[in-house]
Prior knowledge:
Two copies of one chain form a homodimer. In chain A, 26% of the residues lie in helices and 33% in strands. Chain A is of the alpha+beta class. Chain A has two domains: 4-70, Winged helix-like DNA-binding domain superfamily/Winged helix DNA-binding domain (Arc Repressor Mutant, subunit A, Orthogonal Bundle); 73-229, Chorismate lyase, CATH 3.40.1410.10. Chain A has a six-stranded antiparallel β-sheet, sandwiched between helices. The longest helix of chain A is centred in the N-terminal third of the chain and has 14 residues, at 4-17. Chain A is elongated. The A-B interface holds A 2-3, 6, 49-50, 53-55, 73, 78-79, 81-84, 86, 172-184, 186-187, 190, 198-200, 223, 227-234, 242 and B 2-3, 6, 49-50, 53-55, 73, 78-79, 81-84, 86, 172-184, 186-187, 190, 198-200, 223, 227-234, 242.
Amino acid sequence: MAAYYHSIADDLRRRIECAEYVVDEPLPSEAKLAIRYRVSVPTIRIALEVLQAEGRVEKLHGRGNFVRRPEERAVYGSAGHAVGRRAAESPPMQVSAEVRTVSATDGLSALLQVRRGALLTEFEYVSVLGTSVRGLARLYVPQRVVKLKGPVVDPSPWGDEVRSLLAEAGVHVASTVDRVASRLPSTEERKVFRSAAPVLAVERTSTDFSGQIVEGALLALPGDRAEAVFTTRTHVEPMEAVG
Amino acid sequence: MAAYYHSIADDLRRRIECAEYVVDEPLPSEAKLAIRYRVSVPTIRIALEVLQAEGRVEKLHGRGNFVRRPEERAVYGSAGHAVGRRAAESPPMQVSAEVRTVSATDGLSALLQVRRGALLTEFEYVSVLGTSVRGLARLYVPQRVVKLKGPVVDPSPWGDEVRSLLAEAGVHVASTVDRVASRLPSTEERKVFRSAAPVLAVERTSTDFSGQIVEGALLALPGDRAEAVFTTRTHVEPMEAVG
DNA sequence: CAGTGGTCTAGACCACGAA
DNA sequence: TCGTGGTCTAGACCACTGT
């Protein structure tokens, strides 16, 4: 009943932790593993997908399945609130940003609670570590709220500049909500991430003190090479019924 | 280049959104879909996995692939800070809780920063909606910090009682860190969730004002039927470099 | 029992990367 | 060019569900 590919994944995981396979080196090819475990290649591939989703293996097309450390994943932290020891471990990434004006699609209109077609400033961030993409971030600010201008210089991985730009324009964020879900990558994401591993999808909205949504963001993180961290400080005084 | 299973997934998604397939009704069987799209069954299955991970389809062994609404997913909110409209939408779940004493394994010892073998009070929560499990939560409190006692009555889905018990014992949580990652389910989780969909894995630690870890938790949420939401309130005064 | 999805096989052919 | 992983086929057999 316990699928055989799980036994294989467990065995490979154990061998990786025993350093039988070296970090940043490829495992034996899928064909060889199939022979060793006396199963077909697709079965081996499913076992490797399990390890990939754990961040222990990175599949590189045409090269092999490389042993990785899950601790070296990139870290997304809410609204630039850098967090604890993990943040320090997150390796420095190369980030590129583009700014343009778009009009709200159905999805964006629901996220930002603006009418369909409303003008938005879009900030598109791509974070890269070495040759591997660690995150796609699209931030949106309704131009009704404020008309921000690019370009963004020296961008941070998750678009913290937008918050600074908002503050400079006199728009202050009071509260941010991050929704995190897991899904499989879209065609585009699969191409960019070069991976079919599950994606951490983050939907974020920031509101000002009047409750108006002043910023929204859609992030896609490759689940095998990134994670999300949130810090909540408990107030000393027990407080409010939220409303 | 764009895998054909993605086209099939896109087509099915569109038909679902056009209400060509009814919510809570099964799609045509995988065999029939394979004939309709002129592909083999495994290809159809991959397309359905995409929709499953989006929460649009629930696969039920021996019954069929049922159309679902992603909005009806259960919501995990950090440390019981119920959140916005989404929380209201999260349907009420049946929750069972067990309390026992365990000694720290390697993983728990790293999470809680206690020595291996240290005694811990474990709270195990299982949340169910109808017949579908929506979350597994294991909370740990080092007995060195305080020796809590069960049983827990009328448990909440994510173990908020533990926080209350801590407070009653004079232990106050100052800060909570949630790490969210995506992985494929373990053998056990696959059995409990009855699904091979990606799991949202949450590692949580709570510290008191002295920085000591007073509680830790490991949560597994079925990615196709649950999501995580975090709310961050921005302080009015721009503050500290965290360190 | 019949119909469904779950796992697995033993191939085929294509796309990618390095030499 | 050759070895790698990515996609897909056309089955087989098992497990689960409802009748």
